[in-house]
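Per your request, structure below.
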């Protein structure tokens, strides 16, 4: 199974919409869908400060975990969710820093981009909607 950033890179390099949709479907995972939804769905607001967080990237080859496992922690960062609202800002931000420091640095950059709503180049809303109908709410 590919890391999320590897799937995004393949989709970015694909030349046609059909190829992009096919790659997203072929390599679909909940982590990939969560990144895409968190980035493109404007109904999702993040309960974290924007910008570049103070973090130390792990070595890509020795990251203790991966985004395919850690994406479940996103519930702690979504504004309005009980899991997020019951945490203090310091605790929430500490969990976030721990997540991005514990995964592949390229996946961490995707997570930071998601929090900042920075859309990856080469991936559009129509491509996501065709690959994963109903994923985006707005």
């Amino acid at each position: 199974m590919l890391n999320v950033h590897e799937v995004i890179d393949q989709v970015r390099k694909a030349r046609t919409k059909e190829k992009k949709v096919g790659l997203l479907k072929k390599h679909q995972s909940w982590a990939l869908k969560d990144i895409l939804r968190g980035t493109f769905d404007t109904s999702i607001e993040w309960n974290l400060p924007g910008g570049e967080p103070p973090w130390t990237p792990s070595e890509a080859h020795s990251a203790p975990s991966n985004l395919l496992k850690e994406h479940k922690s996103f519930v702690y960062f979504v504004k309005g969710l009980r899991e997020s609202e019951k945490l203090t800002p310091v605790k929430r931000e500490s969990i976030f820093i721990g997540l991005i420091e514990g995964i592949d640095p390229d996946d961490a950059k995707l997570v930071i981009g998601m929090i900042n709503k920075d859309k990856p180049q080469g991936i559009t809303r129509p491509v996501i909607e065709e690959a994963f109908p109903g994923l985006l709410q707005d």
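DSSP finds eight helices and no strands in the chain.

Regards,
D.
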